[in-house]
Amino acid sequence: MRPAGQRPGDEDRARQDGPDRFVLPVGELPTRGPISTDMPVPAVAVAVGAHPDDIDFGCGATLAKWAAHGCVTHHVVMTDGSKGTWDPRVDTTALVTTRRHEQERAAAILGSSSVTFLDNVDGELASDATQRRALCEVIRRLRPTVVLGHDPWRRYRLHPDHRHAGWITVDAVVAARDPLFFPDTTEPAHRPDAILLFEADDPNHIESIAPFLDAKIEALMAHESQHRSTMGIDSSEAGEATAAFYRAVERQAAEHGALASLDKGEAFHRLACS
Ligand SMILES: [Zn+2]
Hints:
By secondary structure, the protein is of the alpha/beta class. The protein has one domain: Rossmann fold (3-Layer(aba) Sandwich), CATH 3.40.50.10320.
């Protein structure tokens, strides 16, 4: 029996289904299709990241492209980033404040309309009902056409917050779309059209980003507190290290784009929600 609210095609099979094929809710074999590119610009997009900077690494250029074409984009950051340093003597309260401002600057560079900080303690995120409810409320309030987030099925992903943020994202989409999940939220149920999972274990969708790679790099550089620990940029060798970081971002974009014979891209696993 199909779970309440679930429809044929809820799983990652929808793109393969012909109009005359009835899809059972359980037991269908996974299917592979050609890699798709450049979905229609959504009206509203919500990107969810574990830490300040994750969204900008994972889908910053796609968000910049969509915003430039009229999409209303939003950042949602699950944790406070309070462990994002190699300095054990750091004032973590000050670090949290710094990282909030950096994320707000980066989001503005990408044309994002808002940043929601859910303020969980960095490193202690749990994919539980409390977190699902919190993100479900955000999705019902912002009513995105597309939700972007970490791929929870990415193998060998070491950081627990990335795994948990991925689960919370996909589970919160299910909760947001079905009215009997968290029925006492302020806003009614909302079903996005699609989820795009970045750091994808099995990429099946590429967004072309060539004109927007510079905006992505500028947004990443706004995370100044992360230059040393995440980007390998030490103040003593800033010029060469910064150039090396730029080359790394450009190389990754070229590798992602090459999956679909594009010049530069961001790769995702695309899931249908309907
Ligand atoms: Zn992270």
